[in-house]
Design a protein that fits this description.
By secondary structure, this protein is α/β, with parallel strands linked by helices. Helix content is about 45%, strand content about 15%. Strands 1, 2, 3, 4, 5, 6, 9, 10 and 11 form a 9-stranded parallel sheet that branches. The protein has a two-stranded parallel ribbon with strand order 7-8. α3 links the parallel β4 and β5. α1 runs parallel beside α12.
């Protein structure tokens, strides 16, 4: 990858992002802003955040191939990259069978989507794939700059690194900046439990050490503690570092609860 992500970035639903927050997290030293929630093909929010900042990278985490056609996405990529050279990364993914009515052969659909991006001149070095299982991790290695796994643990990071070789690995990690374990788990479980309705996530978690009981909604304490780290900023930073030690190049940190105070509290510990 030719674009610098830094060691840590923030991951936030696009609707919760604005230019003021972008400018603040840039000042705090984060390297990348990841746009969650399947932003539309015009990628206007990415452009707005780049316009409001000077050096931070903006990445999509991810554009959903079922809701954003590749032609318009490629046009948006070139518009943004011409205005902010090297500061934008296009993350794409196949979403979830349970949430997309026209879901079909997701692997082949990803390949077809990448073919259109190639034909439109979207640089492989500035795109990543949402990847969990071996087959899509291999696709991320061969047809993109790397992978952006979501809802994973350092164990999955270690597994993904073995497949990806030297290509980029940038997992997402949820955190709750709260030293009260019960309250922090409630915050984490409220979000984590929503993803346990999606088979691709539960299958992946079971492949990497969790039981069927762990992944049954709303999730066991063990699962929630792993997927939504909690504690002091220093304790959370050690959990983030576990991904880096397992082979991640970058970790996209998603603060649950009130995001900006959390990112402020974590900034020094993550440096």
């Amino acid at each position: 990858m030719t674009t610098s992500l830094g060691k840590t970035g923030i991951w936030q639903i696009s609707a919760q992002l604005d230019p003021e927050l972008a400018a603040e997290v840039e000042k705090l030293g984060y390297g990348t802003i990841w746009l969650g929630g399947s932003p539309p093909a015009d990628l206007a929010i990415a452009e707005q955040l780049l316009d409001a900042t000077r050096r931070i990278t903006v990445a999509t985490g991810i554009v959903n191939i079922w809701s954003a056609a590749p032609g318009p996405v490629a046009e948006s990529f070139h518009r943004i990259n011409a205005k902010h050279p090297g500061r934008f990364v296009l993350g794409i993914g196949a979403g979830h069978r349970e949430m997309n009515d026209d879901y079909r052969k997701p692997y082949q659909a990803l390949v077809d989507y990448l073919d259109v991006l190639d034909a439109a001149g979207v640089a492989q070095s500035q795109r990543v794939l949402a990847a969990l299982g071996p087959k899509v991790l291999e696709l991320a290695r061969d047809r993109a700059a790397g992978a952006h796994p979501y809802l994973t643990t350092p164990g999955h990071t270690r597994h993904a690194r073995a497949i990806l070789g030297d290509t980029l690995l940038a997992p997402e990690q949820k955190v709750v900046v709260d030293t009260d374990p019960q309250r922090a788990r409630e915050t984490g479980r409220d979000i984590v439990g929503r993803y346990l309705q999606l088979a691709n996530y539960t299958r992946n978690l079971e492949r990497h050490g969790f039981t069927a009981e762990d992944v049954t909604p709303p999730g066991s304490d063990r699962l929630v503690d792993a997927l939504a780290l909690h504690g002091t900023p220093e304790q959370i930073a050690r959990g983030i570092d576990a991904h880096l030690q397992a082979g991640a190049d970058h970790v996209a940190v998603q603060v649950l609860g009130d995001p900006l105070p959390g990112y402020r509290a974590l900034a020094a510990a993550l440096r």
